[in-house]
Design goal:
Layout (H helix, E strand, L loop, with lengths): L2 H16 L25 H7 L1 H12 L5 H14 L5 H17 L3 H14 L7 H15 L5 H5 L3 H4 L5 H17 L3 H18 L2 H17 L3 H17 L3 H24 L10 H24 L2 H17 L3 H18 L2 H18 L2 H18 L2 H18 L2 H136 L7 H27 L8 E4 H18 L2 E6 L6 E4 L1 H18 L4 E9 L3 E8 L20 H4 L9 H11 L3 E7 L3 E9 L34 H5 L8 H11 L3 E5 L3 H11 L4 E5 L2 H11 L3 E4 L8 H10 L7 E6 L4 H10 L3 E4 L4 H38 L6 H12 L8 H7 L4 H11 L4 H18 L5 H7 L5 H12 L3 H10 L6
Parallel strand pairs: 2-4, 8-9, 8-10, 10-11, 11-12
Antiparallel strand pairs: 1-3, 4-5, 5-7, 6-7
Helix pairs in contact: 1-16, 1-18, 3-4, 4-5, 5-6, 5-7, 6-7, 7-10, 10-11, 10-12, 11-12, 12-13, 12-14, 13-14, 14-15, 14-16, 15-16, 16-17, 16-18, 17-18, 18-19, 18-20, 19-20, 20-21, 21-22, 21-29, 22-26, 23-24, 24-26, 30-31, 33-38
Organism: Aliikangiella marina
InterPro entries: CheY-like_superfamily, HATPase_C_sf, HATPase_dom, His_kinase_dom, HisK_dim/P_dom, HisK_dim/P_sf, Homeodomain-like_sf, HTH_AraC
Keywords: Kinase, Membrane, Phosphoprotein, Signal, Transcription, Transcription regulation, Transferase, Transmembrane, Transmembrane helix
Length: 1053
Amino acid sequence: MNAHNQKNKYAVIFICWLILCVNQTTARNINEDASAANVNKPAEHELLKTDSSYHHISYQYRDNYYGEPLKAIEYLQKKRVHFEYPTEQAYFTDQIKLIELFFKTEQYAQAENILGPLAIEFKNKLQFHPKLALVKAHLMLHNRNIDDFLETLQPYVSVYQKAGNESFNACYLFLLGAYEIRKNQFSNAFTHLTSGLENAKGLGITHLEIEIRNQLVQLFYYTQRYEKALNLNEEIIDIARANDDRYSETLALSNKMNLYYSRAVYLANSMPGEDVANNPIYRSYIKKSRQLQKQVYQLAKEIGAYRTMIKALILKQSHSFGDNNFQQAIIAGKEISEIARQFGFDYENAVASNNTAIAYRALGEYDKSIQALAVAEKSYLEMDNLQSLTWIYDDYARTYEESGNFEKALAYFKKFHDASMKFSQKTNNETLLELQEKYAANERSQEILRLTQKSALNTQQLETEKMGRWLLSVILMAVFLIALTLFHKRKRLKRLLKNEAALNQKITEANAAKQRFFANISHEFRTALTLSIGPLKKLIAEPNYSKNPFIESALENNLHMMTLINEVLHIEKIGAKTLPMQITKINLRMAINHCLNRFLLQFKEKRINICQHGFDESIYFYFDPSHLEKIVANILSNAAKYCLGDCTIELSVKVEQERINLEICDDGPGIDEAELPHIFERFYQGKSSSDQTLPGTGIGLSMVKELVELHQGSVKMCSQVGKGCCVTISFKRGKSHYPQQLIVDARSQHETTPRIAANDRKLPIPQNLKRHPTPLSRNAGHTNELLDNQHRKVILVVDDNPQIRLLIKSILQPEFHVVEADNGKQGLELAETIQPDLLITDVMMPLMNGFQLTEHLREHPQLSHLSIILLTALSETEQRVHGLVLGADDYITKPFDNEELKARVKGHLAQKQRLSKLLLKKYQSGLEKQQLSQTFEGQDSKRSKQLEKLIAKNLSQCEFDVEQMYTAMNMTRSSLYRYTQKHYGCSPKHLLKVRRLEIAYQMLTDLQGTISEVAYAVGYQSLSAFSRAFREHFNHPPTQVKQQYSNEPKVEV
């Protein structure tokens, strides 16, 4: 490469570096308190009257801060001299604006002249220091003196990041990102700049948004993502034009000019040895760069943006080098030097002088080239710019070499080499220093933390010792008086405690007796109602039932009796403060509609209209759903009861900041004003309730009030006779007024609710039992019954009430074989004997209750697999949860629905059947190959393999019999019988039975599921039938096999 091309490359490097010298602006003003300013200056309104030029400038500044920065500077300078500032805050704000405008117009020396005295003036005003630090750091970036940049901002980082200081934070992130670009930390710079951009956009600080975008353009340029840089630059131009900000527009056009030139240089360097000048893309980039250079030069000259004007001229020098028009490059250099000397742009003057030296050398004017290099060298030495000095020394060497002065050329080549080594060493040292500083800072932080902790510990120990001595003195002085006082009070306290303990014992015994009484009476009532409601429902459900109003009335009255019992029990629990609560998030609209659905038929019959107002889908609050239903249902029930017909019930909601108010109003007969104070008292009955035609219990509204107050709410009623009633319920919003243990997740509030299985299909009777009944004998009837029972599921019902057992038996037979026991102890003995498929038990029984029975069954090694349903009158959540925790599979409350009971029984059995089939498939998939190889080793009979595969596939199907076997094998019954006799020595039916029992034995030894699951998995419908067949075949029961192998340690191979 010749000297001309080499220097042209250096000129390009200078242009690319100059792209980074973009104006910076800081965030807007801070708002702090300040004291009064100089009182000798006239007020601003007086100055506006006397100075017409000031008046004109002030409005120009106010109307167009960005578009007329020079006029704004003139306005602020005059204001500084003539205006009486009311506070030092206002004065400080205007001076910061003036510095920012000097930044914008590239007058950095003037900005520094303002900043220095301002920092001294406000040295003792700490509230202004964070803003001054930002402006000082900004000036450091412009002056390229960033050694102390981080130290300047570090003391105020917490202030910048504090909530409420978003404008400070945006400006801080902008400056930090600009600093990191200069340190080549592009990843961190991008993160900080994008965060700052979001903040600036959110705050509407347009000039800061433009500056951050400018920095992102430089970042994309550095990382050679030119397309992104150009697109972002176009956005800056649009924003600047929209705000009539010609300075920002000119700067963005300057960036665009340099970006196109840089793309051209990048393309030229990537195509060595080719004719780049004729490349259409290269020529396009150069053309756009030339057009933009002229536009930028003209705009910068018009608005006085002299630094940007110099950039355009430097690029003009580079274009002149490309055109070999060195004279034009010299002329441009002289113009640059003149502007730079006038405005103090030393670095730009050095760059232009270096380019001028290259042009002189190309023209052979070596003395002038040396003179231009000397000017550039002097500036770089003053700035201690080692990298630029290496380029200068290289140019010296080449100029002397071309002029024939080889001695000086050699000397400067040595200087060039030494400077390059120093620059490389400096770069490495800076990197090492940064690492050392990070390590030292970390060490210092740890040491400071350790010393701080030690100091705090020492201080705490001193304070503790001091406090201890003081307390010891006080205690010693007070001990004598306290001892005397305690001596006299001790006897009295003992007497009071003894009386209180006796009283508490009596109260506890009374409460326990009352609770036992209510539990027992509830059990008896529910049992009686179950025996009444169950048969009535069964009678009404009969196909040949003819409508009988007396039977239906009896059923309705029984259900009403159950409602009354529940209300009395709830009132008692509220009074005893034992009513359970499960607080969850409720949608008010859905909850009210759910309650209304219960009364739709009644409202329709009485011609009552319902109107709802203000119910929004978004209204949620925390409440117990069951309690809310009782509250609303009681109020609606009263309204429906006393409204005679053609009435309207209005429900409305008003949402306040802390409460939700629900109003339920009707236009019925109303209530006398004298009765309103007593309407929520327990057992109080007004005149209407005393009427024989509208009887009441007097506990409904009392329960409403107590339930609402239990949730920290309130309820009130207003009424006028003949105009109706209005009940207002006020609910608290939020959940802070509830204890945390009462709040449950809405998704899990029904976890303890028993589930009704959907699959209740009746399993068919095996075909082989239909075709091959046992021979008749004198015990034929009993034998057939046993056989039938053998293939039906066995249900064990345990209840001390024989009528309940009879009712359940009538519901479940003939689909199931029902065995009865009248207490828990007898039920446990029967379960051990018959091994039922499912057990239904009452809770309250003599000898052994249902909870104890459940616990014994779950601990029993042979019966732990049984499905258990608890059937009881104890309907509270705690009791249901207790039963389920002990191991019950389901919990049904008396009085129960006949069909629901049957559905739950079928569901549990069907679920166990499905699990068993899944268990068998899983077991067979791992055992299939081994079984086939063991069974047919040495045989080549395809038919035997087909038969074994058929049996294994249908092993879990209880319907699979000999007929399906020979049909699937394409054989007749007799041919299949002869084949199995020949190859297996038994009948097909016996072969199927043996295979089932063998698989069952292997599953039990491998601990694959419970005994009942294994039985169902191999096609047995009854657990007792499986146990009997297993014992006959293996001479010991399945429980023995299960227990034997579960106790043996497993050995992994």
